[in-house]
């Protein structure tokens, strides 16, 4: 009896120890292989180890390995001046995952995101450190690059200090929103491509009534859109619901400007006349809209500057469809471009816990990446994945490329990839649909870059009071907007806007506007 | 032998609760949990002074009250009905069909709900029009209808699953009681009223107490999937608010304060309902 008791105690204690061990193991920074493996690295002793985050988009095929270990991570470690451990973070929850890693002290040395406001939040949280000094001391390539691209500086600077490195986007990623129109419908009804808001309404009405799909009934939904749609309707009026605009020297929030009222009025008119889907409100994932477009029930698509599956599927359903990009239409305020990205690409920040020697290795790695490393990561190996036709890298085999190279693009955290519109048809596969798609892509890019998109300040004020206010204001504003657009005569755009301004005031909008103005005055030189 | 289990709870359930102190601090990544500055009840003041907090609190409570009033009895009713089915194969099939939605994610179920209720292509509006001549109703975009849809879709997904415990409780009722009742000439209804229901009384009581602990939360997934911009006055709940204000803006202390408040109310509700149920002579959770 007594023996049995001792036995249980022993088991209990060993279990307890195991638990404790497990516990300390999970609360310590779990940096995989942060201690150099003895023996293995003696040859490359000079190479420091750094860790870098990488977005896990689930694109690495099983035969290729994993995000931590594949042909390209090995290639980087063979060629770069540092040994890099990649820490994958799921694409759908990058910020949550990075925040968890940071809070538990196990975040990678280099943390990057596409979202500048996230980087500025990290700086406010003290999770990252300024990089000016490191660049000054250790960098050659990036230092020279930054002199050539002074437009990047304001985006990288937070409270007067540089907190991140970034390369400039190629025009392919600067271009973002776009409009596509069915040229075959225009031709059939004898119409010209619309250039003003009134003409757009007119074309849409004719699309609705003229039975352009030839099925004998007036059942088309002239205009469909994806998540860019509403912002495109706003951009016609030089507005965006999340941007701040300089009006007579004062910063004002886009969502409460008069121009916004005009844009709501247009949206309401489109809805009332049945020129957009009557159920767009519940089409929150835009599947209905997409279906209308790809089945040839819609003539104008507000989406991106280029089309992927939206085009291929449409061609499958309606082989005669002819799609061309449409330049943004002019409103009473003139012609604005559609949304374009700011010049800075991924923002690469340095973990606050990083020491001088590691920071030096990181800078050397980044210099190498910008100078030589990025190119194979974007286009693959010569003769295996591409052949040069002039200066254009033409894929040898689209499937091989998709499997072996496509996933590697984001390892090139600094890069100078900037394909020209005339490259697309050379780079694409040779079948007619791919060629037609490449032509559309080239035209789309030219169209998207033709007009400048209005952005008065380089980035929005990153004050906590502002994000707090906008987070509480957004759902209220959204609901009022929905009521204006879908409520029939219940609420006119003017009345709705008055309501929105009242809510803005109630939530402390005036006070925040003052803070924003102060912020603007003290950051002016960085915002242009 | 209980020791490892107790340790598990202490280490992984109770020790992390110490982290709740950040509700009274101004948490920053750089300073960590212990190093951040104390701010006392500032976050709670902010919370109670914010107009939006009361709006999301009201919405959360209302949706939960609907789910409780209309949703809680449904599994009991279903279990009673299933219990009376004599054909074993039929009972199994029905049971499985009822469970099925529980295993389908809200993303898919939400898509089905929206499609079925669509004013132009949905089957519900088609029937309303054909049978009663009612003009199509845009259920999902109407602030009056939305809570109804929310509640019913919640019942659709979870009611079948909820019958399991009741059916198990019914299976443990002594069959002799039914035989005695039959001999005494009790009808089916009498048997249900005097034997089955009292037999599962304690199960109902326990499940009710547990349900009260969730009065302050609403599933994030279901809400996000069903929500749209024209019903935000009734559909914006605590969990979506926390997501928007806290996690997206890194206000960890503020949202922890909110979480703490939520847990406290939940705790109070559990304790008081437990008391109430004990008054009725039933055994509560403790």
UniProtKB/TrEMBL annotation, chain A:
PANTHER family: ARABINOSE-BINDING PROTEIN-RELATED, DIACETYLCHITOBIOSE BINDING PROTEIN DASA. Keywords: Signal. SUPFAM superfamilies: Periplasmic binding protein-like II. Pfam families: SBP_bac_1 (PF01547). This is Putative aldouronate transport system substrate-binding protein. InterPro entries: Bact_solute-bd_prot1, SBP. PROSITE patterns: PROKAR_LIPOPROTEIN. Residues 1-29 form the signal peptide.
């Amino acid at each position: 009896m007594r023996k049995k008791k001792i036995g249980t105690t022993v088991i209990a204690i060993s279990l307890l120890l195991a638990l404790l061990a497990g516990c300390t193991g999970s609360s310590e920074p779990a940096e995989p292989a942060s201690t150099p493996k003895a023996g293995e690295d003696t040859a490359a002793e000079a190479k420091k180890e750094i860790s870098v985050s990488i977005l896990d988009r689930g694109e690495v095929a099983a035969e290729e390995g994993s995000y931590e270990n594949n042909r390209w991570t090995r290639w980087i470690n063979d060629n770069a001046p540092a040994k890099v451990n990649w820490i994958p973070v799921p694409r759908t929850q990058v910020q949550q995952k990075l925040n968890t890693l940071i809070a538990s002290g196990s975040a990678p040395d280099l943390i990057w995101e596409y979202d500048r406001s996230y980087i500025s939040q990290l700086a406010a949280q003290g999770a990252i450190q300024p990089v000016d000094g490191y660049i000054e001391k250790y960098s050659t390539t990036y230092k020279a690059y930054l002199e050539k691209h002074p437009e990047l500086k304001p985006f990288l600077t937070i409270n007067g200090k540089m907190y991140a490195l970034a390369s400039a986007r190629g025009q392919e990623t600067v271009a973002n929103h776009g409009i596509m129109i069915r040229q075959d419908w225009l031709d059939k009804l004898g119409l010209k491509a619309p250039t003003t808001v009134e003409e757009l309404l007119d074309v849409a009405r004719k699309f609705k009534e003229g039975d352009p799909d030839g099925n004998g009934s007036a059942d088309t939904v002239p205009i469909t859109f994806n998540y860019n749609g509403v912002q495109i309707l706003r951009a016609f009026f030089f507005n965006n619901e999340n941007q701040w605009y300089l009006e007579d020297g004062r910063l004002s929030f886009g969502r409460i400007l008069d121009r916004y009222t005009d844009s709501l009025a247009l949206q309401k008119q489109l809805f009332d006349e049945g020129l957009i889907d009557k159920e767009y409100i519940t089409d929150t994932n835009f599947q209905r809209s997409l279906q209308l477009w790809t089945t040839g029930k819609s003539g104008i698509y507000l989406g991106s500057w280029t089309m992927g599956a939206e085009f291929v599927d449409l061609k499958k359903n309606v082989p005669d469809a002819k799609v061309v990009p449409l330049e943004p239409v002019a409103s009473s305020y003139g012609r604005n471009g559609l949304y374009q990205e700011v010049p800075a690409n991924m923002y690469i920040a340095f973990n606050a816990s990083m020491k001088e020697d590691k920071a030096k290795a990181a800078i050397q790695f980044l210099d190498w990446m910008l100078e030589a490393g990025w190119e194979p990561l974007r286009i693959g190996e010569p003769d295996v994945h591409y052949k040069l036709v002039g200066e254009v890298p033409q894929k040898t085999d689209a499937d091989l490329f998709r499997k072996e190279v496509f996933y590697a693009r984001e390892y090139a955290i600094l890069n100078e990839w900037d394909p020209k519109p005339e490259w697309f048809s050379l780079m694409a596969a040779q079948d007619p649909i791919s060629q037609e798609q490449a032509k559309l892509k080239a035209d789309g890019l030219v169209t998207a870059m033709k007009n400048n998109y209005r952005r008065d300040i380089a980035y929005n004020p990153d004050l906590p009071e502002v994000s707090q206010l906008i987070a509480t204001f957004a759902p209220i504003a959204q609901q009022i907007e929905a009521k204006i657009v879908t409520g029939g005569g219940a609420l006119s755009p003017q009345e709705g806007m008055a309501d929105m301004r009242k809510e803005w005031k109630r939530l402390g909008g005036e006070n925040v506007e003052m803070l924003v103005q102060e912020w603007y005055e003290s950051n002016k030189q960085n915002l242009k | 032998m209980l020791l490892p289990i107790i340790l598990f709870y202490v280490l992984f359930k109770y020790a992390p609760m110490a982290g709740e102190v950040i509700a009274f601090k101004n948490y920053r990544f750089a300073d960590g949990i212990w190093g951040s500055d104390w701010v006392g009840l500032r976050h709670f003041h902010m919370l109670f002074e914010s107009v939006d907090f009361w709006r999301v609190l009201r919405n959360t409570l209302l949706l939960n009250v609907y789910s409780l009033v209309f949703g809680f009895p449904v599994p009991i009713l279903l279990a009673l009905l299933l219990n009376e089915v004599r054909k074993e194969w039929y009972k199994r099939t029905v049971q499985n069909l009822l469970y099925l939605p529980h295993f389908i994610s809200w993303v898919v179920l939400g898509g089905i709900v929206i499609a079925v209720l669509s004013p132009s292509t949905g089957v519900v509006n088609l029937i309303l029009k054909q049978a009663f001549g009612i003009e199509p109703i845009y259920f999902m975009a109407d602030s009056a209808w939305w809570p109804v849809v929310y509640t019913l879709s919640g019942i659709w997904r979870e009611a079948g699953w909820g019958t399991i415990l009741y059916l198990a409780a019914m299976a443990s009722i002594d069959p002799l009681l039914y035989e005695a009742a039959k001999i005494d000439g009790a009808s089916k209804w009498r048997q249900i009223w005097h034997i089955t229901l009292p037999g599962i009384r304690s199960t109902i009581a326990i499940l009710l107490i547990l349900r009260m602990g969730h009065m302050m939360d609403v599933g994030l997934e279901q809400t996000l999937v069903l929500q749209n911009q024209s019903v935000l006055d009734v559909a914006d709940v605590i969990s979506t608010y926390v997501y928007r204000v806290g996690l997206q803006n890194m206000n960890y202390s503020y949202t922890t304060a909110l979480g703490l408040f939520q847990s406290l109310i939940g705790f109070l509700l559990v304790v008081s309902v437990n008391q109430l149920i004990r008054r009725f002579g039933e055994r509560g959770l403790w």
